[in-house]
Design goal:
Helix 2 runs parallel beside helix 11, helix 3 packs parallel to helix 4 and helix 4 runs parallel beside helix 5. This protein has 14 helices and 10 strands. Helix 4 links the parallel strand 5 and strand 6. It is globular and about 55 Å long. The chain has a single domain, classed as TIM Barrel (Alpha-Beta Barrel), CATH 3.20.20.100. By secondary structure, it is an alpha/beta fold. About 40% of the residues lie in helices and about 15% in strands. The longest helix has 18 residues.
Amino acid sequence: MAMEYRRLGASGLKVPVLSFGAGTFGGRGPLFGAWGNTDAREARRLVDICLDAGITMFDTADVYSGGASEEVLGEAIKGRRDQVILSTKTSLPMGDGPGDAGSSRSRLITACEDALRRLGTDHLDLFQLHAFDAGTPIEEVLSTLDDLVRAGKVRYVGISNFSGWQAMKSLSIAERYGHPRYVAHQVYYSLIGRDYEWELMPLGLDQGLGALVWSPLGWGRLTGKVRRNTPLPAGSRLHSTADYGPPVENEHLYGVVDALDEIAQETGKAIPQIAINWLLQRPTVSSVIIGARNEEQLRQNLGAVGWTLTPDQLAKLDKASTRTAPYPYFPYQRQEGFTRLNPPVADVAA
């Protein structure tokens, strides 16, 4: 299996179409403890498997297990920093103090230094804002990121979970003052969560924002184990974390799973592999972030690449997963000029 690499948005950075999310590393707290509790030894084994398969990008965040995820990842890559692309995020609360959240100059500088220390490196390949900070002027945010890039501590900058106007205003201000432009948008996108397509995908196409997809299996709902008239598996994280994740109506989920079942019979592929492969065919997607509690899950997710769903199979999944867009998007769904999402996008998704 040869890993495919794509440019990250309109940047020159090439990333693998699958990247590894280290949210399962550390295992501290009620949310991240339910995701996984991978220690440094296990993490090093998972990193070994990733590198052997061509997965060179590893994504984490300071809020994951209160910094423990960054620490474990740093231990796992020790001695091979030059082989990996390190991506981390900040802005979400790390404590109860007034300076423990947001994207102020003070917070960003401190968060960057903390991430460098935990990861055991002198630079971050991608530094992302985990959420929009409405209380800090965008000019302050961008000038601080500019300083971190000029200092060599950050190579590229990105965002996560921004709305369309927040992203566009930030990009416009960056262009006005000559600050580094965001090249990546880490977003929720899955067969049971296609809201990304309504505004953020067209914006990504227009502005050169590459999508880094988080939770491609819909917060664990597209594993093939969540079905009609069947209790949740005993070990499912949905028992304790369902309220944290993106919501989905049960009947919509079951309809998508039915379509996945049919294609699984046709292809011999596992449902998670099909769900991830569908995402890899979507415009603007630079990389899909996969997570794994163990080696078995990781190897299964690796089977999502090296093959392609047929046009008929893609159409079947599109039909089962499509939802009516909200205003102001739905009036234009029937008009090709407004909804055509497949123009040449070589710099974004190829």
